[in-house]
C-alpha cells in the first residue's frame, strides 16, 4: 500500500475510516507528511510536542515508538492527532480523553490506525495521554512488532477504567522515566546521585 508522502492521497481504507476520506490526516492533509513512508505520523502541535518530549525523556516510549515507526507503511500506518469527525468525537465521549483504534475492513485488521484525543488537548496533557496510548498501539500491532517490544495483543483492548493490568505497568515505567529525566544534571556523579535520592524520597512521601 502506498501513501502519498504529503498525505494528500485519500484514506487507504476508504469509507471505513469515516465519510471524510482525508480524516486520517486530521482533515488537514497538506500540513501533514510522512516523507519516508513510515507509519507513525503526528499531526498538530500537541501531537508533535508530545512525541518530542516522550522521545527525549523515556527510553521505554522511544523503544515502542521506534518499533512502530521502523515497519513499512504497508504493514503499520498510525496517525496521532485530535479528533475531528462526529464519529471520532462520539468514540471519545464514550471511551475517555484519548483512544487508539486499528481499523478493520471486511473482518481483517488493516495497516491503518489512529491515536486520538479531544481537539482542546494541550501539549502537556497530550504527553500524559500518549504515554498510555502508545502501549495500546504497540498491542494493536503485536503480531508485527510484539517480538521486539514484548507488548502482547491484550494491551490493545479497550478498558472501562483508568487502569489496565497489561498497559498500566508499561505506562508507569514511561512516566517514571519522564520524571527522572527532569532531574538536574549536576556537576558530578555524586551530585546527580544525591538529587536522584532526594527525588525518590519525595516520591515515597
Helix and strand arrangement:
Elements lengths: L39 E3 L2 H13 L1 H12 L6 E6 L3 H10 L2 E8 L2 E10 L5 H18 L1 H8 L17 H15 L7 H16 L1
Parallel strand pairs: 1-2, 2-4
Antiparallel strand pairs: 3-4
Helix pairs in contact: 1-2, 1-4, 2-4, 4-6
Describe the structure.
The protein has 205 residues and is of the alpha/beta class. It has one domain. Strands 1-2-4-3 form a four-stranded mixed beta sheet. Helix 1 packs across helix 4 and helix 2 packs across helix 4. The longest helix has 18 residues. 37% of the residues are buried. The N terminus and C terminus are likely disordered.
Quick structural summary:
With 205 residues, the protein is of the alpha/beta class. It has 7 helices and 4 strands. Helix content is 45%, strand content 13%.
Span between termini: 52 Å
**Strand residue content:** 5-15%
Q: Percent helix among the residues?
A: 40-55%
Continuous helix count: 7
| Succession of helices and strands | EHHEHEEHHHH
**Largest beta-sheet characterization:** 4 strands, mixed
Mean pLDDT: 76
Q: How many β-strand runs?
A: 4
What's the structural domain tally?
A: 1
pLDDT < 50 stretches: 1-26, 31-38, 198-205
Shape: globular
Please give a handful of descriptors for the protein shown.
4 strands; single chain; four-stranded mixed β-sheet; disordered N terminus; 205 residues
